[in-house]
Amino acid sequence: MRILGIESSCDETGLAILEWRADGSVELRAEVLSSQVSLHQKYGGVVPELASREHLRSLPLLCEEVFTLAGLSLQDIDAVGVTVGPGLKGCLLIGVTFAQGLCAASGAPLVPVNHIEGHVLSAELHFGEHGISRDGRKPLAPPYIALIVSGGHTEIVVVKGIGEYELLARTMDDAAGEAFDKSAFLLGYPYPGGAQLAKLADDGESSKRFRLPRVSREIEGFSFSGLKTAVALMVERNRQLLETDADAKREMAWAIQDAILDPLVVKTAREVHQRKLPLVVCGGVSANKELRRRLESLCADVYVPSMRHCVDNGAMIGYVAGRYLNSAAAPPRLGIRSRWPLESLRAHG
Ligand code: KG4
Ligand code: ZN
User: Which ligand 1 atom sits nearest the alpha carbon of residue 9?
Assistant: First the structure.
């Protein structure tokens, strides 16, 4: 069975073709990705209307490219998986309409996919029983805990099976990636500056000069919006110092990174220990070295998909579609949902 996966929920257009073999193994035949970062950079964040138009422009081009790379044609595809939510409405609409066009032309069925389920299952795409990067460890299979940390989402869930998620914690306001990006912007790095802030922090060290309030480890869920104000004040008070003292800038970056990572690590490790389950870390912020280092030092069994599948991509969407088609679970119903919590999947489709 061959599946085309399409992702267009935010500022990345991703397409991939996956093939399921008779023995259950999966091959990633081809994948392509186009990032819109440079388009949105001057606005300091994603501009939804521009993002939609860019998806519209790049989808046909990338589609042609992914089929060429795979050496296949539309008639070779057995199903099309497409992100229907959560995400920016206009962007989702472009992706879904494009997918519907391909289905109408080929007769292949459309499989609606939840974007966050894509992030979570990207770990099984790599480390599951028939995963593409098995590394000698025990194959990853539910139940496990997933920490999802991206520019738009921050949550901890228990993965019980396909479509079955129990929410343990979620952010009440900003996502962890957003906290990285907004803090980086205040330090003078263009959107999305999360990775640059992390790089600066990795060269810095803990210092008594800069202290940020810690979001209580005891509150339910996460909250990062207050941190943004605290960072803005800290930057303002130290503006001159930051211009003249490179060490001060690195130390400040360290303090910001620490304030974002601390609640993520503490709460995730607590759940992993209580439930004695393996841990998956996914979403763009899972690229953060310090986050991985802290979680790996506290938890025995940590699985992180390869970097290209931590960020938004088409392979994770095609994989989720294939998992539904290869199981008894009914895929979600069609409909664009800008908000669509993971834990509501099984109950409400
Ligand atoms: O999953 P993703 O590509 O897109 C969303 O679905 O949001 O995540 C992008 C986020 C951005 O906020 C980016 O700054 C952040 O991931 N990010 C990082 C690092 N690399 C990417 N944050 C912290 N440290 C990094 N090394
Ligand atoms: Zn994402």
Answer: 6
Rounded alpha-carbon distances, angstroms, from residue 2 to 24, 30, 76, 214, 322: 12, 11, 7, 48, 8
Distance CA 313, CA 80 (A): 15
Nearest to 146 by CA among 121, 109, 179: 121
This prediction's pTM: 0.96
Residue 41, both tokens: 């950079």
Beta strand residue intervals within the chain, DSSP E: 2-7, 12-20, 26-35, 79-85, 110-114, 144-149, 154-161, 164-170, 279-282, 302-303
Q: Which of 11, 12, 180, 292 to mutate to test ligand 1, by most ligand atoms within 8 A of the CB atom?
A: 180
Looking at residue 347, its pLDDT comes to 56
Cβ atoms of 320 and 85 within 8 Å: the answer is no
What is the pLDDT at residue 92? 98
Pocket test for ligand 1, best of 191, 264, 311, 313 (most atoms within 8 A of CB): 311
130, 25 in Cβ contact below 8 A? yes
| CA separation for the pair 276, 40 (Å, rounded) | 42
pLDDT tens for residues 285-295? 999 999 999 99
Give the three-class secondary structure for 15. Answer: strand
Could you give the 3-state DSSP secondary structure of residue 114? strand
User: How far apart, in whole angstroms, are the C-alpha atoms of residue 90 and residue 111?
Assistant: 19
What does the block give as tokens for 170?
Answer: 């979620």
Neighbouring residues of 51: CB distance < 8 A, sequence distance ≥ 6: 10, 11, 36, 39, 40, 88, 90, 91
> Residue 311: its pLDDT value, please?
93
Distance separating alpha carbons of residues 279 and 260, to the nearest angstrom: 19
pLDDT over 70 (residue 183): yes
Residue 11: strand, helix, or coil: coil
What gap in Å lies between CA 6 and CA 91, rounded to an integer? 12
DSSP 8-state symbol, 285: G
